[in-house]
Automatic annotation (TrEMBL):
Designated name of the protein: Serine/threonine-protein phosphatase
Residue intervals of the PPM-type phosphatase domain: 32-259
Organism expressing this protein natively: Bacteroides uniformis
Gene3D superfamilies membership: PPM-type phosphatase domain
Lineage of the organism: Bacteria, Pseudomonadati, Bacteroidota, Bacteroidia, Bacteroidales
CDD domains named in the record: PP2Cc (cd00143)
Length: 362
């Protein structure tokens, strides 16, 4: 069992990511998958990722997936901050906006167009995962051989849950492409998304989100083995995933998102406020180096704080010693003056006595 990571203090986090995309046609004549960000435009600054797999034949599936992907991404980017909180309510507002947009594009065909949807949004408190249909989101921790994925909304999953088919039968079933939830226009009851929140995110973790076409020849163990190989870079891992899926029949799209580092949000804000010097300026493709340097700076700051505390503990002792020395000097000086005064008084009395004797003799 994996122990949840519980930091000593609850901090909002900023994530250092390395996201990569796969966007392949397969053996189909047209591309009905849609992804956000668009393939070729994915950057380390992105915090929102969407994969939609359209259906309906001809251009209907393409229209559905593009509409949902575009509407949800535009709504979320315009209504939320990139690193701020992201709630279920905000997600559902974006989903309803997508349903509304799709309603307006309904072509009235007998076979309704529709699309699956998977969404991953990183925010200050972790990440939100949401899905409708059989496109998946994986959370993989290679260091612990841990893999989680969302549950497909499919007929074969329902049959498996009630014991009608086995895992092996699921792989070859003729009904494996039948889904039980999809985003479609003008429905009396709009299907809701399954939402999951993940707060236990660590450097080295991967998130992998994909349409079902990506998994024709790849299962969970294959995926875990590919991502757990310490001798391959992220670019090489993407090349391997692309290679093993090159003969897949269906369109297949995916995002592979590597968590390189986590930075406490309050520290990141402090760093942003500092004046940048040529030595500390780090280009975007070297963000991980900046993250490493952040840790070193925190350790140095911590060491200085401990030294300050030791100095503060020594300060009262120094004050007491100084006061004792001063008190000794004052007492010594007072004693000296008092003794001198007594001695002077005795000499004065002796002088007066001599004078009185002299007067009497005369």
């Amino acid at each position: 069992m994996i122990q949840s990571f519980k930091p000593k203090t609850k901090l909002n986090m900023k994530y250092v990511l390395n996201p990569l995309a796969i966007y392949e046609l397969g053996q189909r004549s047209n591309q009905e998958d849609s992804i956000f960000p668009v393939s070729g435009e994915v950057t380390a600054e992105d915090r929102l990722f969407i994969v939609c797999d359209g259906m309906g034949g001809h251009e209907s599936g393409e229209v559905a997936s593009q509409t949902v992907c575009q509407t949800m991404s535009e709504y979320i980017l315009s209504q939320t901050s990139p690193e701020g909180a992201f709630t279920d309510e905000q997600f559902n507002e974006a989903l309803n906006a997508a349903y509304d947009s799709l309603d307006q594009k309904d072509n009235g065909a007998a076979k309704k167009m529709g699309t699956t949807m998977t969404l991953l949004k990183f925010h200050s408190g972790g990440c939100l995962l949401a899905h409708i249909g059989d496109s998946r989101i994986y959370h993989i921790r290679p260091s612990e051989r841990y893999i989680f994925h969302t549950r497909d909304h499919s007929l074969i999953n329902d049959l498996y849950d009630i014991g009608e088919i086995t895992l092996e039968e699921m792989k070859t079933s003729k009904q494996k492409n039948v889904i039980t939830r999809a985003i479609q226009p003008n429905l009396e009851r709009r299907p809701k998304a399954d939402i999951k929140h993940i707060t236990d995110i660590r450097p080295g973790d991967y998130f992998f989100m994909c349409s079902d076409g990506m998994l024709e020849e790849t299962d969970d163990s294959d995926l875990l083995n590919i991502l757990s190989d310490p001798d391959t870079t992220d670019d090489e891992k993407i090349q391997i995933l692309t290679k093993v899926s090159e003969n897949n029949r269906d369109n297949h799209s995916a995002f592979l998102i590597h968590i390189l580092d986590l930075i406490p949000d309050n520290y990141a804000k402090e760093e942003k406020g500092k004046e940048e010097s040529p030595i500390e300026s780090v280009p975007d493709n070297r963000v991980m180096t900046a993250g490493t340097r952040t840790i070193e700076r925190k350790e140095k700051k911590s060491a200085e704080t401990k030294e300050d505390k030791r100095q503060k503990r020594r300060l009262p002792i120094v004050k007491i010693l100084a006061f004792a020395i001063l008190l000794f000097i004052v007492i010594y000086a007072a004693s000296f003056i008092l003794l001198k005064a007594i001695k002077g008084e005795k000499e004065h009395s002796k002088t007066n006595h001599q004078i009185e004797n002299t007067i009497l003799q005369e």
